[in-house]
Amino acid sequence: MAASTDAIPQDHTIGFIGLGAMGTPMAKRLAAAGFKLILVDADADRARALAKELTASQASTAREAAMQCRLLITMLPSSDIVAAVLEGEHGVLAGLQPGTLLIEMSSGSPARTRMFATQLEGRGARLIDAPVSGGVQRAISGDLAIMVGGDDRDIARAEPVLKAMGSSLLRTGAIGTAHAMKALNNLVSAGGLLISIEALLIGQRFGLNPGTMVDVLNASTGMNNSTQKKLKQFVLSRRFDAGFGLDLMVKDLGIAVDVAHDTDTEVPFASLCRDMWARASEVLGPGQDHTAIAKLCEQLAGSELRG
Ligand code: NAD
Question: Residue 134 and residue 166: Cα distance in Å, rounded?
């Protein structure tokens, strides 16, 4: 059934920029909810193929998409890339219509996001930050947790769109707060995965079976999202393909530690966590899934986890 877009008819058309592991299933949910999409990606073949599959349109630049709609979504790797998509002769700002609402769904830097909002406001447009949690599987099922920061009226306007992609909309406050929250969520998630892997390595050396350990953790107070959804599925199976890049996690942890610095918060454990993930990225190289951090832990421990 089509989502309710009656309140603002022009919002029926959405320019969707960034069609990667997350953007593609999110765009599919919007298409299934009845929205008309104009798709943009640096990989033009990817955008073309998805446009064909969804009977949607493709724009060759962000500017072209901005000229054709009053609602834009960005789902890009980082705030640096969002800035590149906004600025320049082919960027969003060059084609922006007054009254446009940009929903920034990438996991970005709160400080940069506030600057983007000011840039847009100068052109009569608005921005909210709406990063997501739940990974590729929940993007496919339309069951994402969506954190939302910004003005009440802008959020109300975005709600029918967000509800087509997520089952929980979590209001966090002013613009930028959702991006801060997302980075802090990933700090907790990254710490949980890292300590769980180290616990398995210690236990295996002691004579425990790693699979049994995961079962015990999941029935005990050590349970976390990684013990439930990552250790057996992606680490012990040695698939290392959860769908969330190692480089993206390192970026998010950098944002979390930047927020700590900006707020004068002393966080030695969080800093160590960020450093370990950054080291994994250096040692393992580009193109790795975040669950591959287990390989760094194994190298340091001098043993490999057995499934
Ligand atoms: P991805 O690397 O799979 O996809 C990014 C897409 O952006 C690619 O299709 C790429 O071609 C496109 N792109 C890059 N530069 C561009 C440009 N200048 N113009 C247009 N398109 C450009 O990333 P992803 O996993 O989909 O993640 C997107 C965002 O969502 C990131 O901020 C990430 O941290 C966040 N996130 C990811 C997950 C996950 O499980 N993958 C979960 C929650 C949040």
Answer: 9
Question: Assign residue 66 a region: left if phi > 0, alpha if psi is -120 to 50, beta otherwise?
Answer: alpha
Place of tokens 């009053």: 70
Looking only at the bridges linking them, the beta strands covering 71-74 and 126-129 are unpaired
CA distance 82 to 44: 17
pLDDT per position as a tens digit, 277-299? 999 999 999 999 999 999 999 99
- Angle, helix 268-284 to helix 293-301, in steps of 10 degrees: 100
Supply the Cα-derived Rg of the chain in whole angstroms: 20
What's the one-letter identity of residue 2?
A: A
85 touches ligand 1 (CB under 6 Å): yes
Q: Which of 63, 155, 152, 143 is nearest to 104 (CA)?
A: 155
CA–centroid distance, 286 to ligand 1, in Å, is 15
Closest atom of ligand 1 to 84 CA is 18
pLDDT digits (tens, 9 = 90+) for 147-162: 999 999 999 999 999 9
Strands 36-40 and 57-58, bridge-based pairing: parallel
Residue 258 has pLDDT above 90, yes or no: yes
Check: pTM over 0.90? Answer yes or no. Answer: yes
Rounded to the nearest 5 degrees, what angle is found at the Cα of 159, between the Cα atoms of 156 and 165? 165
> In angstroms, what is the span from residue 244 Cα to ligand 1's centroid?
9
pLDDT, position 9 = 61
